[in-house]
Write a structure and sequence with these properties.
Blueprint: H1 2-12, H2 24-28, E1 33-36, H3 42-55, H4 66-89, E2 94-97, H5 102-112, E3 116-119, H6 123-134, E4 142-149, E5 152-160, E6 163-164, H7 166-170, H8 173-176, H9 187-193, E7 196-197, H10 202-205, H11 207-217, H12 221-242, H13 245-261, H14 265-269, H15 291-302, E8 308-315, E9 328-336, E10 339-342, H16 350-372, H17 375-384, H18 392-404
Parallel strand pairs: 1-2, 2-3
Antiparallel strand pairs: 4-5, 5-6, 5-7, 8-9, 9-10
Helix pairs in contact: 1-13, 3-4, 3-12, 3-18, 4-5, 4-16, 12-13, 16-17
């Protein structure tokens, strides 16, 4: 990946320097920004988590439902170790967390270390751009009022050139059809909520449909990505080994497009990442949305070069009236000159308030489970979590998760690295 990065830098005529650090300490010491995007257990653990969830009768999705619980439990201890290194070696640095489940991991790091952490996700920004496209307007003309938690957020008002166009947008079937990458939501659902949910609400609002689609296809997104990654790394090894970096970049670009264009197709439409897809010619490095854009904009804003309005995962500090001050929420923020200020969003809409508060209670419980190493607390987290919401099934779920996750052995009472 470092060789690929150097080739991309050379292609763009930049003078950025890429090096492989000898250790996390080597990478972090003296940094102004630390970007954290880790996958504990690798993509195969994700695939196993998702297949385990499906086998137990739940949709398989890496951050939501039983698979999301497993991902959180194995990621929290490692994320805390990295955050403590940042706290020790670069206490003034901003730790920009991409690691999923992004809001939950950001909350764990914010509450159990003194690192200056902010969480990012491209899901809200992608929805905003799709709304602008549906309105046939540039993104600069559109302002979306947004609130919620990571992978659990809603747009409740859309303004075009300062005018509220929410009712018109919700009443336009052709416009609503452009808002998501798959056939996710019945338009009547959006109208009765009077809200525009982010795509991850599909795993709450349409659980049976999602599970049926996954069972019909016979695989999960994690398994598809695992196959895509295996093919990518094999092909990259050949091209880089032969010194053909132009071809290597072509292979990587095709991979990014294939992965992006197949997103949510399996869960929503019984599609596949390996279906023929003719729209694979865009330049992913120059796309208007994505994690890379948000990370750069956050760093630009914090560096003081130009203020930015960005949806981020930050301590609530009164942004959402119904949520505790220090809990992490996902809201628009003003980012400028070493400061991140969340916007005042008022109270949660009544139709989603219960769901948000229940998911936040789950997040607190699963963090406590990871810190304490308690399998019982992990079961409590599942009980509180609406996508599971029962006590009896949680025992078999936890047992199966431990069986294929060596990093979850601490739940058997073998000690927890997060408690160090």
């Amino acid at each position: 990946m470092a060789e690929l990065g150097r080739a991309l830098v050379a292609r763009e005529g930049s003078n950025l320097r890429i090096r492989v650090a000898a250790s996390a300490e080597d990478a972090i010491d003296g940094a102004s920004f630390v970007l954290s995007s880790i996958r504990v257990g690798g993509i195969n653990s994700r695939a196993l988590d998702e297949s385990t969830a499906v086998a137990h009768g739940y949709p398989g999705q890496e951050t939501t439902g039983p698979a999301g619980v497993a991902m959180a439990l194995r990621t929290i201890p490692v994320a805390l170790e990295y955050a403590r290194i940042v706290e020790k070696l670069s206490p003034a640095a901003w730790l920009i967390n991409f690691t999923n489940p992004a809001g939950l991991i950001t909350q764990a790091m914010a509450q159990h270390t003194n690192a200056r952490v902010v969480g990012i996700c491209d899901t809200p920004d992608e929805l905003f751009h799709r709304i602008a496209t549906a309105l046939n307007a540039s993104p600069e003309r559109v302002r979306c009022d947004y609130l919620g938690l990571n992978h659990l957020g809603w747009v409740r008002r859309v303004r075009l050139d300062g005018q509220d166009v929410t009712p018109a947008l919700l009443g336009d079937d052709s416009a609503l059809a452009q808002l998501y990458s798959g056939s996710l939501f019945d338009h009547q659902l959006l109208r009765c909520l009077n809200l525009i949910p982010t795509e991850y609400l599909y795993f709450y609002y349409s659980r049976r449909r999602c599970l049926a689609n996954q069972r019909a296809v016979g695989t999960s997104r994690g398994e598809e990505v695992a196959h895509l990654n295996e093919s990518l790394l094999s092909e990259l090894g050949k091209q880089i080994g032969s010194g053909d970096m132009t071809e290597a970049l072509g292979v990587y670009t095709a991979y990014l497009n294939q992965r992006s264009n197949s997103y949510m197709k399996l869960e929503a439409d019984r599609g596949s990442a390996f279906d023929d897809n003719t729209s694979l010619d865009q330049d992913p490095f120059r796309s208007a949305t994505g994690y890379h854009r948000i990370a750069i904009n956050v760093m630009k804003g914090l560096s003081g070069s130009e203020p930015q309005r960005i949806v981020l995962n930050v301590p609530n500090r009164g942004a959402i009236a119904d949520i505790k001050e220090q809990d992490i929420v996902e809201v628009p923020c003003t980012v400028s000159c070493d400061s991140i200020q969340p916007e005042a969003c008022g109270s949660l809409p009544e139709d989603v308030k219960g769901l948000v508060l229940a998911v936040k209670a789950y997040e607190r419980a699963v963090i406590e489970a990871a810190i304490s190493g308690s399998a019982v607390m992990a079961r409590k987290a599942m009980l509180l979590y609406p996508p599971v919401g029962e006590w009896e099934p949680s025992k078999a779920l936890i047992d199966d998760m431990i069986e294929h996750n060596s990093s979850l052995e601490y739940l058997r009472g073998m000690g927890n690295p997060a408690a160090k």
